[in-house]
Each structure stands twice: as structure tokens, then as C-alpha cells.
Amino acid sequence: MARYLAIHPDNPQPRLVRQAVDMLRQGAVMAWPTDSAYALGCHLGDKGAVERMRRIRQVDEKHNLTLVCRDLSEIATYARVDNRLYRLLKAVTPGPYTFILQATREVPRRMMHPRRRTIGIRIPDHVIAQALLEALGEPIMSTTLILPGDEHPLTDPEDIRERLDAQLDLIIDGGNCGLEPTTVVDLTGETPVIVRRGKGDAAPFGG
Fold it and tell me: Which domains can be identified in the chain, with CATH numbers?
């Protein structure tokens, strides 16, 4: 049975944020709100928690998980970002985008695409998400909470509890999120490639 924390979407209670972060450090898999939709999340270094997220989503190792970061300076630790990419990312972050980038050696191999050595990176524009990242002091491994057979992400924390209570350790209720996932942009080539159109405006990437 998952622990259920109602965190205020505009003024997150520090006590509850600390409780959530403590659970992440101990291996919890959580459902948490972002600026696009609800997502699954866990500690970057926890192999077992990452595999549990894959099982809930029913995706294999070829599915890019997303490293959710606080800011651009944190991205540079985990992905190769030159000056051109930095300027592009700075113009659209924080926001509802996921960027496919070449991973650095700081990213555990099991968390990147096995053949391409890429990782999904994002910086959310969401108060609760940023509070959790700030308190944790490092990125959170994440994936959009779209269940097998569903067309859209789960958006209501009560629905999440009803469907996933036995599979999660923590559900953060930050109110309803939108139905749109992030816009996914592959930045590993010479020009950006829109992989998935979502909430983020694709125009800055030629889409």
C-alpha cells in the first residue's frame, strides 16, 4: 500500500517534501506531478526501483527513461552539451520538454539506451517537482505515467491510487495535471528531430 502525501502545488510543505525525499533515498518508486502529466520517479542510483518502473510501464531497456534535473548546470554532468545545445536548451527550459542527448559516463549504463548510449533529460517548470529536486540534491529518474493499453497519462492522484496502490511506495497528490506528455526532441544529430509532439511548443526546434 502506497503512502499518500498531499503536497500544496504552490507552497509545498517542507516537512512533506523531506518525507518524500527520504523515501526516495530508501528505494521508493513514486507517482509525482510535473508540468506536463503525472510521472513515475525513483532515485537515480537504485537499480531495483528503476526496474520496477519499467515493469509498471511494461517497457524494455530500449525505452529511454528520463533524468529530471533542477537546472542546466546539472544537465552537463549527465549529458554532452556543447555551446549550441546549451543556448537552445536555455531558451526553452524549464518547461514540458524531454531532450534525447548523448549520455556521459556519469549515467549508469543500465539507464541509457543500450545501443545509442543516449539519455532523456528534462527540467520541469513545476513547483513540487522543483522542491523535490532541490531537497534531494540530485536528479530523479522518471518516466511518464502512461499505463499499458492507455492512450493518455494518468492525471488524477485518486485514480493513480486506485490503479497502482499495490505497486507504488509513494503517491504525491499535487492536484490534477494535464493529459499531455512532454514534447520529446532528439538533439543527438546535426539538427533537432521531434520524436513526440506533446505539451511543449515544437517551433523552436523547427517542428
Answer: 3-197 (3.90.870.10)
| Residues 6 or more apart whose Cβ sits within 8 Å of residue 174 | 7, 8, 9, 32, 33, 126, 128, 157
Q: What are phi and psi of 42, to 5 degrees?
A: -160, 175
As given in the structure block, the three cell numbers for residue 32 are 509525482
Quick: pLDDT tens for 41-57: 999 889 999 999 999 99
Query: How far apart, in Å, are the Cα atoms of 89 and each of 38, 102, 150, 201?
Result: 23, 14, 30, 13
Q: How far apart are CA 52 and CA 46, in angstroms?
A: 10
Handedness of CA 101, 77, 25, 126 (dihedral sign): negative
Distance from C-alpha of 72 to C-alpha of 192, rounded to nearest angstrom: 18
CA-CA distance, 132 to 137, in Å (whole number)? 8
Place of cell 505539451: 199
* Model pLDDT for residues 180-190, shown as the tens digit of each residue: 889 999 999 99
